[in-house]
Amino acid sequence: MKLLRYYGYRGLSISKAFMQYVWDSSGKRYVDMHTGIGVAFLGHNNPRIVSRLKQQLEELIVCSTSFHCRAQDEALDALSRVAPRGLTSVAFANSGSEAVEAALKAAWALTGRRRLVALARSFHGRTLGALSVTWSPRHRKGFPVLEDVVFVDPHSDPSEAYSLVPSDAAAVIVELVQGEGGVTPVSPEVLRALQDAAREKSALFIVDEVQTGFGRTGRVWLYEAYGLEPDVLVAGKAIGGGFPVAVVFMRDDVAKALRGRHGSTYAGNPLALAAVTAAVETLLAEDVPARAAHAGRMLVAELARLLGLEHVRSVRAIGLMAGVELRMEPSKVIACLQEEGVLALKAGVTTVRLLPPYMVSRRDIVEAVERLGRCICRAFGC
Predict the structure, then answer these.
(1) Domain span at residue 173?
(2) In which element (H, E) is residue 151 found?
(3) Would the pTM of this model clear 0.85, i.e. be above it?
(4) Which of 13, 310, 320, 336 has the fewest CB atoms found within 10 Å of its own CB?
(5) Enclosing H/E stretch for 345
(6) Is residue 7 part of a domain?
(7) Which CATH number is 273's domain given?
(8) Distance (Å, whole) CA 310 – CA 380
């Protein structure tokens, strides 16, 4: 059988992993700042999560949400400790894309409208609904995406952004930091203008924190720093500690509108729920947001040293979500970093993206940034 790879093959066979490190089949160790596109933020094989999953494997693997099981109670209790303010209903999904689909369907069900508003350079997933609010023509080309979508420039004037939300909008969906869009923070003023417009037009305001949420930016949820009040918040990646799971937090009336109109065979399965419970326990016991904020400050300080290099345009970071924008396409740099023992990934057109786990050490950071500097010089000259 031949594997259809969704992403370009990196030519690396990973044999084991633990926390911030992975090892290839030859035994070489790498500092992982790729983390499965941000999934392993709580570390690879985090002992709390592994222990909880082992326990659940021995107890119950399959249980439709038509039935009740202990794993549901534990997960809901855990999520109640970190849930976004005012969002007291949850729906589970298997991925961030699926969670976005559920959020959009909830908006359509509640409002009876169809039109959506999203940000230019946004990325919300590759299923058809999520793809419809994903901006990149490269991702959308050749697929029958929804046409009733208005894209707003995240760098526009707030009053212009406000005016672009039509009166028949069902929802406005936003990322707070555009990960695939180059690790680019969106203006808080634009976000608040879009929220105000959604309120005025009785549309839902959906915040996608699949990548920014659950501690990575130094807060459990980044939206709080922006003074926002979402009607729906979508979370994924880190919230399962590496296990495939996502969560849609929503107001009770939104959940009521979606009830009976959406479903998923595997969503909310006992293993996923056990992973969520363990992830929340880890987040709170390890004070993960504070540790991510501290490590993020170290990362920013080290990355700032690269601004003296001719081929570095800018450095953008919030917590442990960082991007180094180059003046050229970064594939050679990312390949060189892999040779040097650091895994990173691309964002946008010219940005090297770094998504390390919360326990990354000062030594890891210093060595990774030194190697990044060498690789930039090796690829483009200094």
Answers:
(1) 47-285
(2) strand 149-152
(3) yes
(4) 13
(5) strand 345-347
(6) no
(7) 3.40.640.10
(8) 9
